[in-house]
Automatic annotation (TrEMBL):
It holds the Pfam family Flavodoxin_4. Keywords: Signal. The lineage of its organism: Bacteria, Pseudomonadati, Bacteroidota, Cytophagia, Cytophagales. Residues 16-182 form the Flavodoxin-like domain. InterPro entries: Flavodoxin/NO_synth (IPR008254), Flavoprotein-like_sf (IPR029039). SUPFAM superfamilies: Flavoproteins. The keyword Lipid metabolism does not apply. The keyword Transmembrane helix does not apply. This is Flavodoxin.
Amino acid sequence: QDIPPATPGNIPIKKALIVYLSRTNNTKAVAGIIHKEIGGTLVALELETPYPANYQTTVQQVARENETGFLPPLRTRIANMEQYDVVFVGFPTWGMQLPPPMKSFLKQYDLSGKTVVPFNTNAGYGVGSSMETVKALAPKSTVLEGFSTRGGIERDGVLFVMEGEKEKRVQNEIRAWLKRIKLVDKEE
Ligand SMILES: Cc1cc2nc3c(=O)[nH]c(=O)nc-3n(C[C@H](O)[C@H](O)[C@H](O)COP(=O)(O)O)c2cc1C
């Protein structure tokens, strides 16, 4: 899924990689909007062993993984990381933290010298410590201001919400954010 790069802003984008983790497709939708605006390569982060379908079981597993620092092995492989100079990392908030698979990704790949751009969806409790963890796990990268929006509330059976008016609003917020962090210089 390669689209040529968008018109470069103040930061000349050679090539962007957009990596995202998504269970109920809200973060995936945000990733898709960013991809349309920026171009580059869009990659879903997949695990060797997927999380259970059951929400509560997943919550408990994630809590254990966060406690022990377990890094779930990834099935996804990024070929030629050197070709990218901007790496977007997208994730839901899980247990008020960065989800373990995104910790795996940031530990596994050397993003030194690259620009890292976090984005997030959550059930309304915010990003927790996730943005700080991205910075800590990409110590030699320039980490730009992240984007976050309210997604689903799986606990209450609210799954995918990025459609209709909500999707349009998020699209506008993303455009404004990309301009603010100078990754696009397009006028509306
Ligand atoms: C295991 C798990 C833990 C979660 N923990 C939180 C949380 O701590 N705070 C929060 O606001 N939302 C939490 N959520 C809700 C998700 O962040 C929210 O539904 C998000 O939009 C899901 O993104 P996705 O559709 O890309 O998977 C959690 C969801 C799951 C599955």
